[in-house]
Amino acid sequence: MARTPKAAQETPVVRHNRATVIGADANTAAAAAFVRAGFSDPTLVLRWNEIAGPEVARLAQPLKFSEGPQKNGGGGTLTLRAAPGAALFLAHEKRELCERINAYLGRAAVAQLKFSQGALPVRPPPPKPQKAAGPLPVGDPSRRYQGPDGLAKALQALARRREK
Questions:
Q1: Strand ranges in the chain using DSSP code E only, listed in sequence order
Q2: Which has more pLDDT, 18 or 78?
Q3: Looking at the predicted structure, is the pLDDT value of residue 163 above 70?
Q4: How far is the C-alpha of 150 from the C-alpha of 155, rounded, in Å?
Q5: What HEC string does 129-140 produce?
Q6: Across-strand partners of 64?
């Protein structure tokens, strides 16, 4: 199991003995998780769909990155979790995929790809496009509302979007 680098281990966690906003600690926790997996720059993981393309991103996701020797100018090894059966297909695309990754990062960061077969997490479906608001029917009850204008407008906007 990979160990956290000394610099990340030695940073003390500031405790205030009170509840704080979760976003304050989220960046620190996320950065530590990326570093443990070898990603000093999380761009490769966060933008994987753009870097690899939708077809490859559907079949594989970055799992771990090991830096290569800096003397030779050679890159490191990127381990990808691939869907069962897809590793063989992706092995034939190694060179092209490495070139795409290095072009996106702007340096020769990846020299070799390794594949680990396993189930990929299920991606949530894309959000449904919202239906355009249609005209408000003449007999709609929201037109008869006699309250504040802001609430009346909100009720009418809701009435325009509801299913018929």
A1: 60-66, 76-82, 110-117
A2: 78
A3: no
A4: 9
A5: CCCCCCCCCCCC
A6: 79
What CA dihedral angle connects 142, 146, 148 and 151, to 10 degrees? Answer: -10
155: its two tokens = 């009720």
Architecture of domain 28-117 in CATH?
2-Layer Sandwich (3.30)
Mean pLDDT score of the chain: 81
What three-state secondary structure class fits 110?
strand
Query: Could you give the CA distance from residue 79 to residue 83 in angstroms, rounded to a whole number?
Result: 13
pLDDT at res. 121: 80
Which of 80, 71, 76, 70 shows the shortest CA–CA distance to 110? 76
Q: How far, in Å, are 57, 133, 139, 158 from residue 136 at the CA level? A: 43, 9, 9, 10
- When pLDDT is averaged across residues 61-69 and rounded to a whole number, the result is 85
Query: Tokens representing 85?
Result: 């059966």
Amino acid at 49: N
Quote the tokens at residue 86. Answer: 């897809």
Report the SS3 class of residue 146: coil
